[in-house]
Specification:
CATH architecture of the largest domain in chain A: 3-Layer(bba) Sandwich
Number of helices of chain A: 17
Shape of chain C: globular
Order of helices and strands of chain C: EHEHHHEEEEEHEHHEHEHEEEEEEEHH
Mean pLDDT of chain A: 92
Oligomer: heterotrimer
Largest sheet of chain A: 9 strands, mixed
Largest sheet of chain C: 7 strands, mixed
CATH architecture of the largest domain in chain C: 3-Layer(bba) Sandwich
CATH topology of the largest domain in chain C: FAD/NAD(P)-binding domain
Mean pLDDT of chain C: 94
Strand content of chain C: 15-25%
CATH superfamily of the largest domain in chain C: FAD/NAD(P)-binding domain
Helix content of chain A: 25-40%
Radius of gyration of chain A: 24 Å
CATH topology of the largest domain in chain A: FAD/NAD(P)-binding domain
Number of strands of chain A: 22
CATH class of the largest domain in chain C: Alpha Beta
Structural class of chain C: alpha/beta
Number of strands of chain C: 17
Low-confidence stretches of chain C: 421-431
Low-confidence stretches of chain A: none
Distance between the termini of chain C: 22 Å
Number of domains of chain A: 3
Radius of gyration of chain C: 23 Å
Strand content of chain A: 15-25%
Number of helices of chain C: 11
Largest interface: A-C, 65 and 86 residues
Chain lengths: 564, 425, 431
């Protein structure tokens, strides 16, 4: 199978989808391929922080200024993906006053609004802050939902003619005499994939964009270029509830475990910074989770006893020009790099974009698109900073919508915030619309909308709707979500999708198994194993390779005393 | 010494409830088993009522600082608190409901709305009763008149299907004052009686019974100035009113505790309020002290005196009672106390009418829109009362008593009255 | 003045109630204190003895045959098959006609809401016509406002499981419940009270989908107080057998089962107190002298000659944990667990998790043992999910373990009343 496109973007994270959108807006024919679901790379495992830039004000002024500029833009164009929580940089008596003052000054120099507060004022904003927090700086940090953002970019790109293909892995780049002319893609199939597993597709492209982040080195190798990405892992721990509604940063020079970001219904603790050799395989250690809790409970004592629901690790796609040679990954710049391989390696038709952070994805995409359009001879202007993403078009109408749908207020509210201007279309139904995921207030209508878009991939449905991301981590709702796949999908597909979601939910919960969440896990286990007998279901699961049902000697069992 | 399970402690809220208490951490204990929903009597009869799991941990967890919309259905919660005693994980459900309700009334309910006016009136029954009790016969005639009933329903939404409880000729406090206060003096055995509005204005015989029984055991009984416990205020989201009343009560009773008194109540909702709702919702100095020193009257005697033996030796007139344990009594572990102790008295038969809710739940069943629901909830109790031997009801809660009478026509006594018959006369 | 009894049972679930009943029937004075409602409401209402062997073999046709092959540390081996038999007999008596399954030792296979089948030993009478070994063709019917049961999907799954009958699924609107998200108890109430003639309307709606099937399966919401009345009315209207399919929490059959035990406790003269937790205790020598029940901050003493701990496992709250370790919070009994909490679980969701076996270790007299293997207290026994050593979730053995250990703990507690107990040196504590 073969196809043609102008630009092939490899990588379906924030950068890749941002590029696809930008190019599509400029009338360029774009194809994006992603080996998993959208955001299955770093984007799906980031902290959810919309930087004000204050974190970089002292160490990396350029990044800081870029952040505040993009922060303002995203608030407008991606309003339904962003919550303007505000941020605080807090210090305790043992933290440096000098650093505090420098932070304040540097923020202002970088154009980041920064207001000093007393400890008491900070505690009025956030009552759970430790009693010994003595000063704070208020900055415009925000919280961003990376899934929603990425999906919106992809949706907009598709609207404008782009082709977005998930579950499609680039296995080789086609290089013809020093010119990259395309790629060989293997479709992995699976629920929600557009092509069957195992099929190969040759995609011919004028230009290939390497937006694979932590995997940029692996892709570069296929064209014989060296992209020395230095993947660095960081742990994030998700709390069951929001102990804070403001981003809390520890005002001190670089260090681990120094930030808490409110995210939807939860708060996310972060993080660490440890270089790894393989972005797909690295250790996930208990001590990292304990470190986050032990350290951050110095800022927020309630964290010591509060319930976590899962922990996960993300791998930062850090890049620095090889000449720099930093030893400590925390020293590597967070600025992004555009690698013009024609210039640096003599290989045309390929550009890599690495580094950066989610907050500046749009700017990275702009630079990349400018460069690629230049290469293609397309005269164009970037307008991604002006045009709102689908869902963010009309903020004001939100409140009006909510009364219409016969949903309970908080359910309507949260649903409308996720759906933005699509709320009416999705929730306006005459059919019964029960809540399927009670923890996150996700109704049947919203789930079906997501299923219509992505097919029987419950993890893709999950990241769009937040279903199974709450309190019970899917124990009480995974199977309800799976039920919604029927009748469009058959029983075998439904069971496979359910198993996949359940196992994925388990992965992160393993790091939260003590106290209240261990009780939750036990309840989930009893429900799925004992009540539903899913661990010994006589019907084969697509994952365990059986094709026949396990033979059951039906007549040997008790058939009751009725109906003889 | 073992460690008790302490992850069920309610979230501490600050003294000034209007500064937006944050009960989200209370959702940590919830593991979504829905046992609370299965125990909610309102959810069983009204499908538009989402149940305690939603009203409490789910709704709170979805809240983001000021970005919140409390669902109006929180006003349909009767505050029976059965969810509290159902929850195996120790979620402080009624604390979450009370605060959500208060936030709703404060932010989303107009003070000019009929609902608000009616709820405020009902919540402040005590204050109105103070006035009405001065001219009991006139008040009784007025409140019993069908015109007033009709007006109440049309103007305010107070059901005309129920009869207002009548005011006694003489209040309990007046009786106590007239007899010269406590007739027993004791330095070690001292109790301060929190009588509640109802015992004072409507059923002084209950208060008299308590005083006589405690004096028989050698207790010095004090009856200090007091305000409404706040129960109807919590149930209607009128927390500023509740706060004022609670502050007065805590200050008064804490001083008495310092002088060696324990606090006893005859109404299980009053004792519930002092023991659980006060520490959950308020932070006055002495709130915890008052909570740990408050008991239901029979509970107190049972712990400190050999009531069981005395009752076994008692010889009152034969009688049969249908006993209903109030929901609020259940939460204090008192549901079987009356049948266990009084059922052992010779010639006295006490039949427990089951563990369903009476349905009235304080002011809940007085609202026109809830009348039908409250009667549906109480249906099971009425049935059991009719099949139980005898035609007299028995219960500690004044509004349960109203409901029992309303549904079966039985007269309803308080266990303290039976205790008095057994031990004093 | 402590409240005094012969036997104090702490915990009011299946194990606690069984222990209390077993003790009360010998004539001793029993008090049962339960903090909250039991976990019966979360479980399906089925009574499992043993569905799968620890190595995963199953579903077992005869659970009793497999008991002797269980490891000697398994609660069934410790309590003994006699206790299991008597515990089941006690259950059968309490449940009366409401439950079936005692006519045979064989397990029954009951359909689940997902369309799998699950082995169990005792099931509600309302479930009986739905057993998978019954080969009548079946119609499954779900409700469009609920999310936990998609009847056509479940039917398809049962079909793929190879059940010996044809099965189809259909969806109807439940009569009289207009709002979505009503609780299971609401559905049950509508049918109990037959609000607006709901039974007839439901039958009518089901009938339109019936096509020769001789039995119809509905989610287990067919009345909380009058399931036989509801089912009878539906069967009469439809002319075919009607059965319930057990659901996840909240479980109406679980509520009914709780009510059956509640009535039995009352009839047996057990004094039941709910609402307050046991928070402390005092030992004297090798015996527990008093337990303390919390009443809003005051600790009220309760004294008994014998104590039974039946507070549940990780879900019921009888076993608690934090980042450092796992404890039994009421009497501080030893709970063995790996020191590294990352050894508490397996990587696969349905792996052989250590946490699924957390609990106290007991000897054959049901006494919890300390680290060194000596009874913690001479007059303390444990029963139910608080007892560890078996992965009851995977085995499908939780209720049977509660019955067996509950029965044995209750009987031994009763016979221990007033009798001499272990000598000091045999017992772990010298307080």
């Amino acid at each position: 199978m073969a196809s043609r496109t102008d630009v092939l973007v490899v990588g379906g994270g924030s950068t890749g989808t941002g590029i696809a959108r930008d190019l599509a807006m400029r009338g360029v024919d774009v194809t994006l391929v992603e080996r998993g679901t959208l955001t299955s790379g770093t984007t799906g495992r980031m902290h959810g922080l919309l930087h004000s830039g204050a974190r970089y004000a002292v160490s990396d002024g350029k990044s800081a200024s870029e952040c505040i500029a993009e922060n303002r833009i995203l608030r407008e164009i991606a309003s339904h993906c962003v919550e303007m929580t505000g941020g605080l940089f807090v210090k305790r008596p043992s933290d440096s006053e000098t650093y505090f003052e420098r932070k304040l000054r540097r923020c202002r120099e970088c154009g980041i609004p920064a207001e000093p507060l007393s400890g008491a004022e900070a505690r009025r904003m956030e009552p759970y802050l430790a009693a010994d927090v003595d000063r704070a700086i208020r900055v415009p940090d925000g919280a961003v939902d990376p899934f929603r953002l990425c999906v919106a970019n992809a949706a907009d790109a598709r609207e404008r003619g782009a082709r977005i293909v998930t579950h499609a892995e680039v296995v080789d780049l086609t290089v013809d005499g020093g010119d990259v002319v395309g790629a060989t893609v293997r479709h992995r199939g699976g629920p929600g994939a557009s092509r069957a597993a195992g099929t190969t597709e040759e995609i011919h492209a004028e230009h290939v964009v390497n937006a694979t982040g932590a995997w940029a080195g692996q892709l570069g190798e296929m064209a014989g270029v060296d992209v020395a990405v230095r993947p660095s892992k960081g742990v994030m721990t998700i709390m069951n509830v929001r102990q804070v509604d403001t981003v809390i940063n520890w005002c001190r020079p670089k260090g681990d475990a120094d930030i808490v970001v409110p995210h939807e219904t939860t708060a996310i603790l972060g993080t660490t910074d440890e270089e790894v050799s393989d972005p797909d395989d690295y250790p996930e250690a208990q001590r990292e989770v304990d470190l986050l809790i032990d350290e951050l409970s110095k800022l927020l004592p309630i964290l010591a006893e509060a319930r976590t629901i899962r922990s996960f690790w993300g791998v930062r796609p850090l890049y620095e020009p090889p000449s720099v040679g930093s030893e400590d990954p925390t020293d590597i710049t967070r600025d992004f790099s555009l690698l013009d391989h024609a210039e640096r390696d003599g290989v045309t038709g390929l550009t890599t974009i690495v580094g950066g952070k989610l907050t500046t994805y749009r700017l990275m995409a702009e630079h990349l698109a400018d460069h690629v359009c230049d290469q293609l001879g397309v005269r164009s202007r970037c307008r991604t900073d002006e045009v709102p993403l689908p869902g963010s078009e009309d903020d004001a109408v939100l409140d009006e919508y909510m009364a219409e749908f016969g949903l309970r207020s908080p359910v309507a509210r949260r649903s409308a915030q996720r759906l933005g201007s699509r709320t009416s279309d999705v929730l306006g139904t005459d059919e019964p619309n029960p809540v399927v995921c009670e923890c996150e207030a996700v109704t049947r209508a919203e789930l079906r909308d997501a299923i219509d878009e992505v097919g029987a991939d419950l993890n893709a449905v999950r990241i769009r709707t937040r279903a199974s991301m709450g309190n019970c981590q899917g124990g009480l709702c995974c199977h309800r979500m799976a039920n919604e796949l029927h009748p469009a999908s058959d029983d075998a597909t439904v069971r496979g999708a359910l198993s996949e979601l359940y196992e994925e939910r388990w992965k992160g919960q393993r790091h939260a198994l003590w106290g209240e969440h261990l009780s939750q896990a036990m309840l989930n286990h009893l429900l799925h194993a004992t009540t539903m007998n899913r661990d010994h279901d006589p019907v084969p699961d697509s994952r365990d390779g059986r094709t026949d049902s396990a033979a059951v000697a039906w007549s040997a069992f008790d058939g009751g005393t009725d109906g003889d | 010494m073992s460690d008790a399970i302490d992850d069920s402690d309610p979230v501490r809220v600050s003294d000034d409830w209007t500064s937006d208490p944050d009960l989200r951490p209370g959702a940590d204990a919830c593991y979504k088993c829905s046992t609370c929903d299965s125990a909610c009597p309102v959810a069983a009869v009204d499908e538009t009522f989402p149940g305690p799991k939603f009203q409490g941990p789910e709704q709170w967890r979805l809240k983001r600082k000021e970005d919140v919309d409390v669902d109006p259905s929180v006003m349909q919660c009767s505050n029976c608190m059965r969810c509290d005693s159902a929850c195996p994980a120790g979620v402080s459900l009624s604390q979450m409901h009370n605060t959500a309700r208060a936030a709703y009334v404060d932010e989303q309910l107009s003070p000019f709305s009929r609902e608000y006016v009616r709820d405020r009136l009902l919540a402040n029954y005590g204050r109105l009763a103070r006035i009405g009790s001065r001219v009991p016969r006139l008040t009784n005639a007025l409140m019993g008149s069908s015109v007033v009933s009709w007006l109440n329903e049309r103007l305010l939404g107070i059901t005309s299907d129920r009869e207002f409880p009548s005011f006694a000729e003489q209040t309990f406090r007046s009786w106590f004052r007239e007899r010269g206060g406590s007739q027993v003096s004791s330095a070690e055995k001292r109790v301060a009686y929190f009588h509640g509005d109802y015992a004072n204005f409507n059923t002084p015989e209950v208060g008299k019974a308590l005083v006589r029984v405690f004096e028989r055991y050698g207790y010095e009984v004090a009856v200090p100035e007091q305000r409404c416990s706040g129960t109807p205020m919590f149930a209607n989201g009128m927390l500023p009113d509740a706060r004022r009343a609670a502050k007065f009560n805590v200050e008064t009773f804490r001083d008495l505790i310092e002088e060696g008194y324990d606090v006893v109540c005859s109404c299980t909702s009053c004792s519930m309020a002092l023991r659980q709702e006060y520490p959950e919702l308020f932070d006055f100095e002495g709130t915890d002290v008052v909570a740990t020193h408050t008991f239901e009257a029979l509970e107190y005697l049972r712990i400190h005196e050999d009531v069981e033996a005395d009752l076994r030796a008692a010889d009152p007139e034969a009688a049969q009672y249908a006993y209903h344990a109030p929901c609020h009594a259940r939460n204090q572990g008192l549901a079987t106390q009356a049948t266990e102790l009084l059922g052992g008295v010779e010639g006295v038969e006490v039949t427990d009418v089951g563990d369903s809710c009476s349905g009235i739940s304080g002011t809940y069943g007085w609202k026109a829109e809830n009348y039908e629901t409250s009667m549906q909830i109480g249906e099971e109790m009425f049935e059991h009362m009719e099949t139980a031997p005898g035609e007299t009801g028995l219960t500690e809660c004044p509004t349960c008593a109203m409901q029992m009478e309303h549904g079966t026509g039985y007269e309803v006594d308080h266990p303290l009255e039976l205790l008095e018959r057994c031990l004093v006369r | 003045m402590a409240i005094e009894d012969d036997v104090l049972v702490v915990g009011g679930g299946l194990a606690g109630a069984t222990a209390a009943l077993a003790a009360a029937r010998t004539g001793v004075r029993v008090r049962l204190v339960s903090y909250k409602k039991s976990t019966l409401r979360q479980a399906s209402g089925l009574v499992d003895v043993l569905g799968y062997a620890p190595d995963g073999t199953g579903p077992l046709v005869d659970p009793f045959e497999a008991i002797d092959a269980l490891p000697s540390t398994h609660p069934y081996r410790l309590a003994g098959t006699d206790a299991l038999g008597r515990g089941l007999a006690l259950f059968d008596e309490v449940a009366g006609d409401a439950y079936r399954g005692d006519h045979t030792d064989a397990n029954a296979l009951v359909p689940t809401t997902g369309g799998a089948v699950k082995p169990t030993a005792r099931y509600p009478a309302t479930v009986e016509p739905g057993l998978a070994s019954d080969d009548r063709d079946a119609l499954l019917v779900g409700f469009d406002g609920t999310t936990d049961f998609d009847a056509p999907l479940a039917a398809a799954h049962l079909g793929r499981a190879g059940v010996p009958f044809d099965v189809r699924g259909a969806t109807v609107t439940f009569p009289g419940v207009a709002a979505a998200d009503a609780t299971a108890t609401r559905f049950a109430q509508v049918l109990d009270a037959d609000e607006g003639g709901a039974r007839a309307v439901l039958a009518d709606r089901v009938r339109t989908h019936l096509d020769g099937e001789r039995r119809v399966g509905l989610p287990a919401v067919l009345g909380e107080t009058d399931p036989e009345g509801v089912r009878g009315a539906l069967e009469e209207a439809l002319g075919v057998a009607v059965f319930e399919i057990p659901t996840g929490p909240p479980s109406v059959p679980g509520v009914r089962l709780e009510a059956l035990f509640s009535a039995a406790l009352s009839a047996a003269g057990v004094r039941v107190e709910t609402g307050n937790p046991v928070v402390d205790f005092e030992g004297a020598g090798d015996r527990i002298d008093r337990a303390f029940v919390d009443r809003s901050g005051s600790a009220v003493p309760y004294r008994a000659d014998q104590y039974v701990l039946a507070t549940g496992g990780l879900v019921g709250g009888g076993i608690d944990s934090d980042r450092e370790g796992v404890v039994e919070p009421v009497f501080d009994c030893h709970v063995p667990h790996p020191t590294d909490r990352y050894d508490w679980f397996e990587d696969d969701a349905f792996g052989d998790h250590a946490f699924a076996r957390f609990g106290v270790v007991v000897d054959e007299t049901m006494r919890p043992l300390d680290r060194r293997g000596h009874p913690e207290w001479a007059n303390l026994r444990a029963a139910g999910a608080v007892v560890g050593g078996a992965d009851a979730a995977a085995e499908k053995s939780a209720s049977g373990i509660s019955l067996a250990t509950g029965y044995r703990a209750g009987r031994l507690a009763a016979s221990g009343v007033g009798a001499g107990e272990l000598t000091r040196t045999e017992c772990g504590h010298t307080r």
